[in-house]
Protein backbone atom coordinates (compact mmCIF):
# COMPACT_ATOMS: atom_id res chain seq x y z
CA UNK A 1 0.00 0.00 0.00
CA UNK A 2 1.49 3.36 -1.05
CA UNK A 3 1.68 5.98 1.66
CA UNK A 4 3.57 8.61 -0.41
CA UNK A 5 1.73 11.79 -1.38
CA UNK A 6 3.42 11.95 -4.81
CA UNK A 7 1.29 11.24 -7.86
CA UNK A 8 1.61 7.64 -9.01
CA UNK A 9 2.15 6.19 -12.45
CA UNK A 10 1.90 2.62 -13.70
CA UNK A 11 3.71 1.95 -17.00
CA UNK A 12 2.74 -1.31 -18.69
CA UNK A 13 5.07 -1.98 -21.61
CA UNK A 14 7.72 -4.54 -22.53
CA UNK A 15 9.66 -2.04 -24.65
CA UNK A 16 12.56 -1.24 -22.31
CA UNK A 17 13.79 1.89 -24.06
CA UNK A 18 10.27 3.40 -24.05
CA UNK A 19 9.82 2.53 -20.36
CA UNK A 20 13.14 4.21 -19.52
CA UNK A 21 12.27 7.43 -21.38
CA UNK A 22 8.68 7.57 -20.07
CA UNK A 23 9.81 6.94 -16.48
CA UNK A 24 12.54 9.57 -16.64
CA UNK A 25 10.14 12.35 -17.64
CA UNK A 26 7.59 11.26 -15.01
CA UNK A 27 10.26 11.14 -12.31
CA UNK A 28 11.30 14.70 -13.14
CA UNK A 29 7.81 15.80 -12.08
CA UNK A 30 7.91 13.74 -8.88
CA UNK A 31 5.81 10.76 -9.94
CA UNK A 32 6.25 7.45 -8.08
CA UNK A 33 6.67 4.87 -10.83
CA UNK A 34 5.73 1.21 -11.09
CA UNK A 35 6.54 -0.86 -14.17
CA UNK A 36 4.86 -4.00 -15.49
CA UNK A 37 5.82 -5.84 -18.68
CA UNK A 38 2.69 -7.91 -19.32
CA UNK A 39 -1.11 -7.78 -18.97
CA UNK A 40 -0.88 -10.26 -16.11
CA UNK A 41 1.65 -8.19 -14.16
CA UNK A 42 -0.44 -5.07 -14.82
CA UNK A 43 -3.50 -6.82 -13.38
CA UNK A 44 -1.60 -7.79 -10.25
CA UNK A 45 -0.45 -4.21 -9.65
CA UNK A 46 -3.91 -2.77 -10.28
CA UNK A 47 -5.37 -5.14 -7.72
CA UNK A 48 -2.72 -4.25 -5.20
CA UNK A 49 -2.68 -0.45 -5.53
CA UNK A 50 -4.54 2.55 -6.85
CA UNK A 51 -2.64 4.65 -9.39
CA UNK A 52 -3.34 8.18 -10.57
CA UNK A 53 -2.33 7.39 -14.12
CA UNK A 54 -1.55 4.29 -16.20
CA UNK A 55 0.41 4.43 -19.46
CA UNK A 56 -0.33 1.16 -21.25
CA UNK A 57 1.01 -0.26 -24.49
CA UNK A 58 -1.69 -1.75 -26.71
CA UNK A 59 0.25 -4.84 -27.74
CA UNK A 60 1.77 -6.71 -24.85
CA UNK A 61 3.42 -10.16 -24.95
CA UNK A 62 0.40 -11.87 -23.37
CA UNK A 63 -2.49 -9.85 -24.80
CA UNK A 64 -3.93 -6.42 -25.48
CA UNK A 65 -3.40 -3.44 -23.17
CA UNK A 66 -7.13 -2.78 -23.60
CA UNK A 67 -7.75 -5.65 -21.18
CA UNK A 68 -6.43 -3.45 -18.38
CA UNK A 69 -8.55 -0.40 -19.14
CA UNK A 70 -11.61 -1.62 -17.24
CA UNK A 71 -9.71 -2.27 -14.03
CA UNK A 72 -8.21 1.22 -14.33
CA UNK A 73 -11.56 2.90 -14.87
CA UNK A 74 -13.06 1.07 -11.90
CA UNK A 75 -10.37 2.38 -9.56
CA UNK A 76 -10.47 5.93 -10.97
CA UNK A 77 -7.07 5.63 -12.70
CA UNK A 78 -6.66 7.78 -15.80
CA UNK A 79 -5.42 5.83 -18.82
CA UNK A 80 -3.13 6.78 -21.70
CA UNK A 81 -2.78 4.07 -24.35
CA UNK A 82 0.33 3.98 -26.52
CA UNK A 83 1.03 2.01 -29.65
CA UNK A 84 3.98 1.53 -31.96
CA UNK A 85 1.79 0.30 -34.81
CA UNK A 86 -1.13 2.62 -35.32
CA UNK A 87 -4.07 1.21 -37.23
CA UNK A 88 -7.56 2.47 -37.78
CA UNK A 89 -9.06 -0.49 -35.88
CA UNK A 90 -6.97 -0.06 -32.77
CA UNK A 91 -7.59 3.70 -32.81
CA UNK A 92 -11.37 3.17 -33.05
CA UNK A 93 -11.29 0.52 -30.35
CA UNK A 94 -9.23 2.75 -28.10
CA UNK A 95 -11.51 5.74 -28.60
CA UNK A 96 -14.53 3.66 -27.62
CA UNK A 97 -13.02 3.14 -24.20
CA UNK A 98 -12.73 5.97 -21.73
CA UNK A 99 -9.20 7.23 -22.22
CA UNK A 100 -7.36 10.33 -21.25
CA UNK A 101 -5.30 10.13 -24.46
CA UNK A 102 -4.03 7.84 -27.21
CA UNK A 103 -0.39 8.29 -28.20
CA UNK A 104 1.62 6.87 -31.09
CA UNK A 105 5.28 5.98 -30.61
CA UNK A 106 7.66 7.71 -30.74
CA UNK A 107 5.64 9.93 -28.45
CA UNK A 108 6.14 13.70 -28.32
CA UNK A 109 7.83 14.42 -24.97
CA UNK A 110 6.08 17.82 -24.61
CA UNK A 111 2.62 16.32 -25.02
CA UNK A 112 3.38 13.46 -22.66
CA UNK A 113 4.81 15.85 -20.05
CA UNK A 114 1.71 18.10 -20.33
CA UNK A 115 -0.51 15.05 -19.71
CA UNK A 116 1.47 14.04 -16.64
CA UNK A 117 1.37 17.58 -15.28
CA UNK A 118 -2.38 17.92 -15.74
CA UNK A 119 -3.08 14.62 -13.93
CA UNK A 120 -0.68 15.55 -11.08
CA UNK A 121 -2.30 18.96 -10.69
CA UNK A 122 -5.84 17.59 -10.67
CA UNK A 123 -4.93 14.91 -8.10
CA UNK A 124 -3.30 17.38 -5.72
CA UNK A 125 -6.50 19.43 -5.38
CA UNK A 126 -8.92 18.21 -2.74
CA UNK A 127 -12.14 17.20 -4.47
CA UNK A 128 -14.91 19.77 -4.09
CA UNK A 129 -17.40 19.12 -1.28
CA UNK A 130 -20.77 20.20 -2.62
CA UNK A 131 -23.43 21.75 -0.45
CA UNK A 132 -25.10 18.40 0.14
CA UNK A 133 -21.71 16.89 0.81
CA UNK A 134 -19.77 13.99 -0.50
CA UNK A 135 -21.41 10.76 0.71
CA UNK A 136 -23.00 12.90 3.43
CA UNK A 137 -19.70 14.49 4.53
CA UNK A 138 -20.11 18.24 4.75
CA UNK A 139 -17.40 20.83 5.31
CA UNK A 140 -14.99 23.26 3.76
CA UNK A 141 -11.81 22.61 5.72
CA UNK A 142 -8.56 21.46 4.20
CA UNK A 143 -8.52 18.60 6.72
CA UNK A 144 -11.82 17.27 5.36
CA UNK A 145 -10.55 17.64 1.78
CA UNK A 146 -7.47 15.61 2.67
CA UNK A 147 -9.57 12.99 4.38
CA UNK A 148 -11.74 12.65 1.27
CA UNK A 149 -8.60 12.19 -0.83
CA UNK A 150 -7.50 9.40 1.55
CA UNK A 151 -10.94 7.77 1.37
CA UNK A 152 -10.92 7.85 -2.44
CA UNK A 153 -7.46 6.32 -2.53
CA UNK A 154 -8.08 3.51 -0.08
CA UNK A 155 -11.70 2.68 -0.97
CA UNK A 156 -11.07 0.58 -4.11
CA UNK A 157 -8.33 -1.47 -2.42
CA UNK A 158 -8.83 -4.34 0.03
CA UNK A 159 -6.75 -2.67 2.76
CA UNK A 160 -8.29 -2.73 6.21
CA UNK A 161 -8.82 0.75 7.61
CA UNK A 162 -8.60 1.96 11.19
CA UNK A 163 -10.47 5.22 11.79
CA UNK A 164 -9.56 7.20 14.88
CA UNK A 165 -11.53 10.17 16.11
CA UNK A 166 -13.25 11.57 19.18
CA UNK A 167 -16.90 10.75 19.69
CA UNK A 168 -19.17 12.52 17.24
CA UNK A 169 -16.46 13.37 14.70
CA UNK A 170 -18.06 11.27 11.96
CA UNK A 171 -16.29 7.88 12.11
CA UNK A 172 -19.31 5.93 10.93
CA UNK A 173 -20.06 8.36 8.12
CA UNK A 174 -16.43 7.99 6.92
CA UNK A 175 -16.69 4.18 7.07
CA UNK A 176 -19.87 4.33 4.97
CA UNK A 177 -18.16 6.60 2.43
CA UNK A 178 -15.29 4.10 2.08
CA UNK A 179 -17.80 1.32 1.46
CA UNK A 180 -19.80 3.40 -1.03
CA UNK A 181 -16.63 4.28 -2.98
CA UNK A 182 -15.32 0.71 -2.94
CA UNK A 183 -16.07 -1.86 -5.59
CA UNK A 184 -17.77 -4.06 -3.03
CA UNK A 185 -21.34 -5.00 -3.89
CA UNK A 186 -22.26 -6.68 -0.58
CA UNK A 187 -23.83 -4.99 2.43
CA UNK A 188 -22.35 -2.48 4.86
CA UNK A 189 -22.83 -3.99 8.32
CA UNK A 190 -22.06 -1.86 11.39
CA UNK A 191 -21.54 -3.27 14.86
CA UNK A 192 -20.68 -1.46 18.07
CA UNK A 193 -18.23 -3.74 19.86
CA UNK A 194 -18.91 -2.03 23.19
CA UNK A 195 -22.67 -2.48 23.07
CA UNK A 196 -22.86 -6.22 23.81
CA UNK A 197 -21.64 -8.73 26.31
CA UNK A 198 -18.76 -10.93 25.17
CA UNK A 199 -20.76 -14.07 24.39
CA UNK A 200 -23.52 -12.24 22.61
CA UNK A 201 -21.00 -10.28 20.53
CA UNK A 202 -19.21 -13.53 19.59
CA UNK A 203 -22.37 -15.17 18.31
CA UNK A 204 -23.51 -12.00 16.56
CA UNK A 205 -20.15 -11.69 14.80
CA UNK A 206 -19.53 -15.30 13.88
CA UNK A 207 -23.09 -16.68 13.90
CA UNK A 208 -24.33 -19.70 15.76
CA UNK A 209 -25.59 -23.20 15.18
CA UNK A 210 -27.39 -25.45 17.60
CA UNK A 211 -26.26 -29.08 17.39
CA UNK A 212 -29.62 -30.76 17.88
CA UNK A 213 -31.31 -28.92 15.02
CA UNK A 214 -32.54 -30.43 11.79
CA UNK A 215 -31.35 -29.28 8.42
CA UNK A 216 -31.24 -25.49 8.13
CA UNK A 217 -32.67 -25.08 11.62
CA UNK A 218 -30.95 -23.28 14.45
CA UNK A 219 -28.47 -21.70 12.07
CA UNK A 220 -27.90 -18.02 12.57
CA UNK A 221 -25.47 -16.35 10.21
CA UNK A 222 -23.45 -13.67 11.95
CA UNK A 223 -22.33 -10.23 10.87
CA UNK A 224 -19.36 -11.67 8.97
CA UNK A 225 -21.68 -13.66 6.76
CA UNK A 226 -24.15 -10.79 6.42
CA UNK A 227 -21.32 -8.60 5.17
CA UNK A 228 -20.15 -11.14 2.56
CA UNK A 229 -18.78 -9.27 -0.44
CA UNK A 230 -19.24 -6.05 1.51
CA UNK A 231 -17.85 -4.23 4.53
CA UNK A 232 -17.95 -4.98 8.24
CA UNK A 233 -17.62 -1.84 10.37
CA UNK A 234 -16.36 -2.65 13.87
CA UNK A 235 -17.02 0.49 15.88
CA UNK A 236 -15.24 0.93 19.21
CA UNK A 237 -12.95 -2.01 18.50
CA UNK A 238 -11.02 -1.17 21.69
CA UNK A 239 -14.08 -2.25 23.69
CA UNK A 240 -13.98 -5.76 22.25
CA UNK A 241 -13.06 -8.32 24.96
CA UNK A 242 -9.48 -9.62 24.57
CA UNK A 243 -10.56 -13.21 24.02
CA UNK A 244 -12.77 -12.19 21.16
CA UNK A 245 -9.99 -10.05 19.70
CA UNK A 246 -7.95 -13.27 19.43
CA UNK A 247 -10.81 -14.99 17.62
CA UNK A 248 -11.19 -12.01 15.29
CA UNK A 249 -7.47 -12.01 14.55
CA UNK A 250 -7.56 -15.70 13.63
CA UNK A 251 -10.56 -15.13 11.34
CA UNK A 252 -8.85 -12.25 9.55
CA UNK A 253 -5.60 -14.15 9.13
CA UNK A 254 -7.15 -17.39 7.92
CA UNK A 255 -10.03 -15.91 5.92
CA UNK A 256 -12.44 -18.40 7.51
CA UNK A 257 -14.85 -18.34 10.43
CA UNK A 258 -16.74 -21.01 12.30
CA UNK A 259 -20.18 -20.36 13.76
CA UNK A 260 -20.50 -20.87 17.51
CA UNK A 261 -21.41 -24.54 17.88
CA UNK A 262 -20.74 -25.14 14.18
CA UNK A 263 -18.57 -27.88 12.77
CA UNK A 264 -17.39 -26.50 9.44
CA UNK A 265 -15.36 -23.50 8.38
CA UNK A 266 -16.96 -20.81 6.27
CA UNK A 267 -14.84 -18.72 3.91
CA UNK A 268 -15.25 -14.97 4.34
CA UNK A 269 -14.81 -12.24 1.78
CA UNK A 270 -15.26 -9.20 3.98
CA UNK A 271 -13.45 -5.88 4.15
CA UNK A 272 -13.02 -4.78 7.74
CA UNK A 273 -13.09 -1.15 8.80
CA UNK A 274 -12.57 -0.55 12.50
CA UNK A 275 -12.93 2.60 14.57
CA UNK A 276 -11.75 3.75 17.94
CA UNK A 277 -11.89 6.95 19.93
CA UNK A 278 -8.49 6.20 21.49
CA UNK A 279 -5.61 8.12 20.01
CA UNK A 280 -3.58 5.76 17.88
CA UNK A 281 -0.62 8.01 17.12
CA UNK A 282 1.54 7.10 20.11
CA UNK A 283 1.50 3.36 19.78
CA UNK A 284 -2.15 2.53 20.29
CA UNK A 285 -2.52 4.09 23.63
CA UNK A 286 -4.30 2.46 26.43
CA UNK A 287 -3.64 -1.20 25.66
CA UNK A 288 -7.22 -1.82 24.55
CA UNK A 289 -6.12 -3.66 21.43
CA UNK A 290 -3.90 -6.70 21.02
CA UNK A 291 -0.73 -5.69 19.20
CA UNK A 292 -1.16 -8.15 16.34
CA UNK A 293 -4.78 -7.10 15.78
CA UNK A 294 -3.83 -3.42 15.89
CA UNK A 295 -1.29 -3.92 13.10
CA UNK A 296 -3.63 -6.19 11.14
CA UNK A 297 -6.59 -3.79 11.10
CA UNK A 298 -4.50 -0.64 10.98
CA UNK A 299 -3.11 -1.19 7.49
CA UNK A 300 -4.44 2.20 6.47
CA UNK A 301 -5.10 4.56 9.39
CA UNK A 302 -7.38 7.58 8.99
CA UNK A 303 -7.44 10.15 11.78
CA UNK A 304 -10.46 12.45 11.93
CA UNK A 305 -9.48 15.70 13.63
CA UNK A 306 -11.87 17.06 16.26
CA UNK A 307 -14.23 19.76 14.99
CA UNK A 308 -12.37 22.49 16.92
CA UNK A 309 -9.32 21.78 14.75
CA UNK A 310 -11.24 22.23 11.49
CA UNK A 311 -13.38 25.24 12.24
CA UNK A 312 -13.95 25.89 8.51
CA UNK A 313 -16.41 22.98 8.63
CA UNK A 314 -18.58 24.56 11.34
CA UNK A 315 -20.52 27.12 9.28
CA UNK A 316 -21.41 24.79 6.37
CA UNK A 317 -22.47 22.11 8.87
CA UNK A 318 -24.55 24.53 10.96
CA UNK A 319 -26.27 25.93 7.85
CA UNK A 320 -27.03 22.45 6.59
CA UNK A 321 -28.50 21.27 9.90
CA UNK A 322 -30.63 24.45 10.02
CA UNK A 323 -31.87 23.95 6.47
CA UNK A 324 -32.89 20.35 7.36
CA UNK A 325 -34.90 21.71 10.30
CA UNK A 326 -36.50 24.38 8.09
CA UNK A 327 -37.48 21.70 5.59
CA UNK A 328 -38.88 19.40 8.26
CA UNK A 329 -40.90 22.06 10.06
CA UNK A 330 -41.66 24.37 7.11
CA UNK A 331 -39.62 27.16 8.76
CA UNK A 332 -37.52 29.98 7.33
CA UNK A 333 -35.03 30.54 10.10
CA UNK A 334 -31.50 31.69 9.45
CA UNK A 335 -28.37 32.57 11.42
CA UNK A 336 -27.01 36.09 11.54
CA UNK A 337 -23.33 36.60 10.70
CA UNK A 338 -22.52 37.09 14.40
CA UNK A 339 -24.33 33.87 15.25
CA UNK A 340 -22.24 31.93 12.75
CA UNK A 341 -19.08 33.52 14.12
CA UNK A 342 -20.15 32.50 17.64
CA UNK A 343 -20.58 28.90 16.47
CA UNK A 344 -17.23 29.00 14.67
CA UNK A 345 -15.40 30.04 17.82
CA UNK A 346 -16.94 27.46 20.15
CA UNK A 347 -14.80 24.43 21.07
CA UNK A 348 -17.43 21.67 20.44
CA UNK A 349 -16.18 18.97 22.81
CA UNK A 350 -18.94 16.67 21.50
CA UNK A 351 -17.94 17.50 17.90
CA UNK A 352 -20.41 17.37 14.98
CA UNK A 353 -23.06 15.60 17.04
CA UNK A 354 -22.99 18.38 19.64
CA UNK A 355 -23.14 21.05 16.92
CA UNK A 356 -26.21 19.38 15.44
CA UNK A 357 -27.89 19.31 18.85
CA UNK A 358 -27.03 22.95 19.49
CA UNK A 359 -28.55 23.95 16.14
CA UNK A 360 -31.75 22.02 17.03
CA UNK A 361 -31.93 23.71 20.39
CA UNK A 362 -31.35 27.16 18.89
CA UNK A 363 -34.07 26.44 16.32
CA UNK A 364 -36.59 25.47 19.01
CA UNK A 365 -35.75 28.37 21.30
CA UNK A 366 -35.56 31.12 18.64
CA UNK A 367 -38.36 33.68 19.04
CA UNK A 368 -38.16 34.89 15.43
CA UNK A 369 -36.83 33.82 12.04
CA UNK A 370 -33.44 35.26 12.87
CA UNK A 371 -31.15 33.34 15.17
CA UNK A 372 -28.65 35.78 16.64
CA UNK A 373 -27.36 34.04 19.77
CA UNK A 374 -27.35 30.26 19.17
CA UNK A 375 -25.14 29.52 22.17
CA UNK A 376 -27.12 31.77 24.51
CA UNK A 377 -28.99 28.82 25.94
CA UNK A 378 -25.79 26.93 26.58
CA UNK A 379 -24.19 29.94 28.27
CA UNK A 380 -27.20 30.82 30.41
CA UNK A 381 -27.98 27.34 31.53
CA UNK A 382 -24.49 25.93 31.89
CA UNK A 383 -22.68 28.13 34.35
CA UNK A 384 -20.75 25.12 35.61
CA UNK A 385 -17.96 23.40 33.74
CA UNK A 386 -18.54 19.67 33.41
CA UNK A 387 -16.27 17.48 35.48
CA UNK A 388 -15.78 13.69 35.19
CA UNK A 389 -18.54 13.24 37.76
CA UNK A 390 -21.04 15.90 36.66
CA UNK A 391 -23.21 16.38 33.62
CA UNK A 392 -24.51 19.72 32.39
CA UNK A 393 -27.71 19.70 30.39
CA UNK A 394 -29.24 22.70 28.64
CA UNK A 395 -32.95 23.53 28.65
CA UNK A 396 -34.56 22.19 25.48
CA UNK A 397 -32.56 18.94 25.47
CA UNK A 398 -34.83 16.01 24.66
CA UNK A 399 -35.48 13.29 27.26
CA UNK A 400 -33.90 10.78 24.94
CA UNK A 401 -30.73 12.84 24.70
CA UNK A 402 -30.63 13.39 28.48
CA UNK A 403 -30.90 9.64 28.99
CA UNK A 404 -28.19 8.94 26.44
CA UNK A 405 -25.76 11.48 27.84
CA UNK A 406 -26.37 10.33 31.40
CA UNK A 407 -25.70 6.73 30.44
CA UNK A 408 -22.55 7.52 28.46
CA UNK A 409 -21.18 9.82 31.14
CA UNK A 410 -21.79 7.25 33.87
CA UNK A 411 -20.08 4.54 31.82
CA UNK A 412 -17.14 6.85 31.24
CA UNK A 413 -16.99 7.63 34.97
CA UNK A 414 -16.81 3.93 35.83
CA UNK A 415 -14.19 3.17 33.18
CA UNK A 416 -16.81 1.45 31.00
CA UNK A 417 -17.61 -1.06 33.76
CA UNK A 418 -21.22 -1.81 32.88
CA UNK A 419 -22.00 -3.54 36.17
CA UNK A 420 -20.93 -0.55 38.24
CA UNK A 421 -22.69 1.88 35.90
CA UNK A 422 -25.91 -0.17 36.09
CA UNK A 423 -25.75 -0.21 39.89
CA UNK A 424 -25.22 3.56 40.03
CA UNK A 425 -28.11 4.24 37.66
CA UNK A 426 -30.41 1.78 39.41
CA UNK A 427 -31.01 -0.36 36.31
CA UNK A 428 -29.95 -3.83 35.22
CA UNK A 429 -26.85 -4.53 33.13
CA UNK A 430 -29.20 -5.83 30.45
CA UNK A 431 -30.93 -2.43 30.30
CA UNK A 432 -27.55 -0.81 29.70
CA UNK A 433 -26.83 -3.18 26.83
CA UNK A 434 -30.32 -2.67 25.40
CA UNK A 435 -29.82 1.08 25.37
CA UNK A 436 -26.38 0.81 23.79
CA UNK A 437 -27.81 -1.46 21.12
CA UNK A 438 -30.66 1.01 20.52
CA UNK A 439 -28.18 3.88 20.07
CA UNK A 440 -26.32 1.77 17.58
CA UNK A 441 -29.43 0.93 15.56
CA UNK A 442 -30.89 4.45 15.61
CA UNK A 443 -27.91 6.78 15.50
CA UNK A 444 -30.17 9.59 14.21
CA UNK A 445 -32.10 9.60 17.46
CA UNK A 446 -29.08 9.49 19.64
CA UNK A 447 -27.77 12.98 19.23
N1 LIG B 1 -18.57 15.96 8.04
C1 LIG B 1 -19.83 15.68 8.35
N2 LIG B 1 -20.83 16.10 7.56
C2 LIG B 1 -22.12 15.85 7.88
N3 LIG B 1 -22.54 15.23 8.99
C3 LIG B 1 -21.58 14.78 9.80
C4 LIG B 1 -20.18 14.98 9.53
N4 LIG B 1 -19.48 14.43 10.53
C5 LIG B 1 -20.38 13.91 11.38
N5 LIG B 1 -21.64 14.12 10.96
C6 LIG B 1 -22.88 13.76 11.67
O1 LIG B 1 -22.60 13.81 13.05
C7 LIG B 1 -23.20 12.72 13.73
C8 LIG B 1 -22.14 11.88 14.40
O2 LIG B 1 -21.41 11.19 13.40
P1 LIG B 1 -20.96 9.66 13.56
O3 LIG B 1 -22.03 8.86 14.22
O4 LIG B 1 -20.43 9.19 12.24
O5 LIG B 1 -19.76 9.93 14.59
P2 LIG B 1 -18.86 8.87 15.35
O6 LIG B 1 -17.49 9.46 15.37
O7 LIG B 1 -19.04 7.52 14.73
O8 LIG B 1 -19.49 8.95 16.80
P3 LIG B 1 -19.42 7.86 18.00
O9 LIG B 1 -17.94 7.61 18.23
O10 LIG B 1 -20.06 8.57 19.14
O11 LIG B 1 -20.15 6.66 17.53
C9 LIG B 1 -23.98 11.95 12.68
O12 LIG B 1 -25.30 12.44 12.69
C10 LIG B 1 -23.30 12.31 11.38
O13 LIG B 1 -24.17 12.23 10.30
From TrEMBL:
Domain Sigma-54 factor interaction, chain residue ranges per copy: 137-364
GO-annotated molecular function: ATP binding; sequence-specific DNA binding
Domain of life: Bacteria
InterPro entries: AAA+_ATPase (IPR003593), AAA_lid_NorR (IPR058031), CheY-like_superfamily (IPR011006), Homeodomain-like_sf (IPR009057), HTH_Fis (IPR002197), P-loop_NTPase (IPR027417), Sig_transdc_resp-reg_receiver (IPR001789), Sigma_54_int (IPR002078)
Domain Response regulatory intervals: 8-120
Coiled-coil region: none
Residue numbers of 4-aspartylphosphate PTMs: 57
GO terms, biological process: phosphorelay signal transduction system; regulation of DNA-templated transcription
Keyword Transcription regulation: yes
Keywords, alphabetical: ATP-binding, DNA-binding, Nucleotide-binding, Phosphoprotein, Transcription, Transcription regulation
PANTHER family in alphabetical order: C4-DICARBOXYLATE TRANSPORT TRANSCRIPTIONAL REGULATORY PROTEIN DCTD, TRANSCRIPTIONAL REGULATORY PROTEIN
Protein name: Two component Fis family sigma54 specific transcriptional regulator (NtrC subfamily)
Organism: Tahibacter aquaticus
Lineage, highest ranks first: Bacteria, Pseudomonadati, Pseudomonadota, Gammaproteobacteria, Lysobacterales
Amino acid sequence: MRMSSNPSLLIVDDDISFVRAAAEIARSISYDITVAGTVQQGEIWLKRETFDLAVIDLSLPDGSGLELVRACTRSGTDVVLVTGYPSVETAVEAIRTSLLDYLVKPIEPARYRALLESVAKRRSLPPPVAEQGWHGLIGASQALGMMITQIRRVAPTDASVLIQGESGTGKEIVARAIHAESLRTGAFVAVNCGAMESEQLASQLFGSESSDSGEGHGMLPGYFEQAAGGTLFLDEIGEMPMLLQGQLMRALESGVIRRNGGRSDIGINVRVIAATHYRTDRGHGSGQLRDDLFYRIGEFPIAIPPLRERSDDIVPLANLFLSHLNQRHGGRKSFTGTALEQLRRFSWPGNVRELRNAVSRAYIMAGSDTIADPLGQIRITTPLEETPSTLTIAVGTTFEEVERRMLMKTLEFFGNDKTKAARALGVSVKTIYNHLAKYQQNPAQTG
